Amino acid sequence: MRFDARTHWVGLACFLAVAVAGASSSVWSAVAPTVVIIKTGTPKPFEIATRAITAALRATARQPEILTFDLEGEEANAAAIFARVQRAKPDLIVTMGSLATKSALANSTTEPIVFSMVLYPAESGFLDARARVTGASLDIPVDVQFAYVQRLLPKARRVGVLFHPAETGTVIQAARAAATKRGLTLVAKPITEHDDVVDAMETLMEQVDVVWSVADGYVFTPQATPALILASLRRGVPLIGLSSAHVRAGALAAIYCDYDDVGEQTATLVRRVLEGESPGSLPVTTPRRVGLALNLRTAERLRVTLPPDVAAEAEETVQ
Predict the structure, then answer these.
(1) Model confidence, pTM
(2) Where are the beta strands (DSSP E) in 130-182?
(3) I want to staple 191 with a disulfide (CB 3.0 to 4.6 A). Which of 195, 268, 285, 312 is the partner?
(4) In what order do the strands lie in the sheet containing 92-96?
(5) For the domain 32-138+259-288, what is the CATH code?
(6) What does the domain layout of the chain look like in residue ranges?
């Protein structure tokens, strides 16, 4: 067979090109992705979830580079922060809280976004760009909450709630259906920003056996919350609060999220997106683990006998 030098060198060149391409591909696949975490601020729940996200991602095989930025609770800081974010060229943005999520959607264009520690993401408009957004919400399913209400207060039939229609109207719609399935009657009293929420609470408590709370910024303001808890104690109607802080202030009970687990849920979504799944194909998660806080002093004052099995489950009690 006659040796063809030109064919030999063309073949060798092709072989080398393939080899170099393969080596290049393996090098690029080994490059750690960059994940940016943008925090709304530094309240303790955000810090707990951030630590959980960071720990979970650093335990993965690819060990992404993680950069953290803090808006310090100010929307005005977003432009400067996102200029730095864009220079980092992240493969993915994690947002911690609603302000960070809103800012990321307004200031980024193509990066996938995984939000965390967010209430009512659909109602907040965070899922309008669904193709590149998913996340871990703080929305404890209403059926889970009503199950706790029934276990705590087996004789309760009429459950009251204050809400602002624009803020939590869709939450109340879902709650009505969940209450009906459990044989409860939801007495939902709408308010406006001009209403006195304490007066509205006083009126509501004349009609119900227990007051259930939704995280509504028009109802549970820093100014109104202590007065709402005091009204519950004065009227003798149990209040199911939103947090351990409410329980320590006098609410009978609260069902709250496990922030470590919300962080782990977030990290799982981040990992799946980095591995090639589309954010839009990944369902937004709801808390899979919740905690119960009880105020035994309030129970005694309201003459409520808490079932022993439920009391034993409480992760925090005030005595």
Answers:
(1) 0.86
(2) 133-137, 158-163
(3) 195
(4) 65-70, 34-39, 92-96, 113-118, 133-137
(5) 3.40.50.2300
(6) 32-138+259-288, 142-257+291-318
